[in-house]
Amino acid sequence: MAEKEWKKLYDENGILLYEGFTVHDVPCGAGEAYYPDGTIYREGIFGIKGLLTGKEYYPNGQLRLNAVFALNKNYGPNYPKYGIFLSEDGSITHEGIFTYGLNGTGYPIVDSPKELHSVIQSGSPSIPVLMWGTEERSTRCEL
Question: In this predicted model, what pLDDT tens digit does every residue of 80-135 receive, in sequence order?
């Protein structure tokens, strides 16, 4: 069985995507993900389908979310369950529980706050994630 290891993950062009704990070269545990310019994108605890709890930033470095994410057992990534959502100027636009629905393909869409809407920011980097039933990976990502 694979053990967690601290690693840096790079894209095909040698740009740093992630630094932190991994299992099978996929984020699993505490770590940080980065935009291509090196600005922090997400930091916190990563697991199946992405971030489980932590912070997400706009490309300009401003905090976007500080949240606990719901573990999505359906199509698409995890989505924020509760926390704080901020605008690009740093003002808090929502604090508390996030509500969501599913689009036509079953992908999660945030209903409230409406400003958040998409679970994944436009232009965000593509970071590998653990998926359900991927070898023993999903069972080895114990926090």
Answer: 999 999 999 999 999 999 998 888 777 888 888 877 767 777 777 787 777 766 54
The residue ranges of DSSP E strands in the chain, in sequence order, are: 5-10, 16-23, 26-34, 40-47, 50-57, 63-70, 79-86, 92-97, 99-102, 108-112
Residue the block writes with tokens 């690693």: 7
Query: Given the structure tokens 């095909």, which residue do they identify?
Result: 12
DSSP three-state, residue 48: strand
Cα dist. 53→12, 36, 39, 65, 115 in Å? 28, 22, 19, 10, 20
Under 8 Å between Cβ of 18 and 27:
yes
Find how far residue 131's CA is from the centre of its chain: 13
Q: Is 65 helix (H, G, I), strand (E, B) or coil?
A: strand
Neighbours of 73 (CB within 10 A): 9
Q: Say how far apart CA 37 and CA 104 lie, in whole Å.
A: 34
Rounded to whole angstroms, the Cα distance separating 80 from 97 reads 8
* pTM attached to this predicted model: 0.85
